[in-house]
């Protein structure tokens, strides 16, 4: 009998409270290598809070669940811990340095130096070209400030910086927001390339079309709880909207705790 593969990331029974508010209530989610898992729900559903626990930005409640990386418990208490486990986060507002070029962005804070102690611009550009060739072969604007790039090209730079130092897990928060159709398509191509490289991706998005184009699985949250988890190929957009709005799981979904409270209302 084939043994079930080990998730790249598994968050089990995570809770986060702010005062008396249960922002995340016993939530579990996982992702496998080379997989995109979309995390969707209304504003305030808890999806960003849950994923910020993985990025180290938030602490889970004391005694609440565990995070596993490659099947082993990973104590993630801050962003530095997350980076040590190969977890990188790309927020909607890209944290790129607009006034410098792509190589300077990729090596920001980790600049290469020559034997004489000066910046090794040649080596940094060569490394940047290597990464970009694999990630986005059409990217050619290596010597212009990032502020002169298109939105899709800026996403290329941000993603390249994340994977430059061996990130294996990417959290992408609304990666196509405010992009035109052509730029959004470029970002979609980038995500597909990352999948081929075996990187696991958590995709937070309000764009249901993006979710169906890019995600292998969809996890829906409502009021801090997991409504359900489903393979994208097994559901329609209307069924996912029913999960988001009503908490009603279709037959193909694996229901979570959030489905029980809303299934009667959605019946």
Characteristics of this structure?
9 helices; 267 residues; 11 strands; 7-stranded mixed beta sheet; Rossmann fold; globular
Please, could you describe this protein's structure?
- The protein is α/β, with parallel strands linked by helices and 267 residues long.
- The chain has one domain: P-loop containing nucleotide triphosphate hydrolases (Rossmann fold, 3-Layer(aba) Sandwich).
- The protein has 9 helices and 11 strands.
- Strand 4 and strand 5 form a beta hairpin.
Topology:
Blueprint: E1 9-18, E2 21-31, E3 36-40, H1 47-55, E4 66-69, E5 72-73, H2 79-84, E6 87-90, H3 102-106, H4 121-135, H5 151-164, E7 169-173, H6 181-196, E8 200-204, H7 208-214, E9 217-222, E10 225-231, H8 237-246, E11 254-255, H9 257-266
Parallel strand pairs: 3-8, 3-9, 6-7, 7-8
Antiparallel strand pairs: 1-2, 1-4, 4-5, 9-10, 10-11
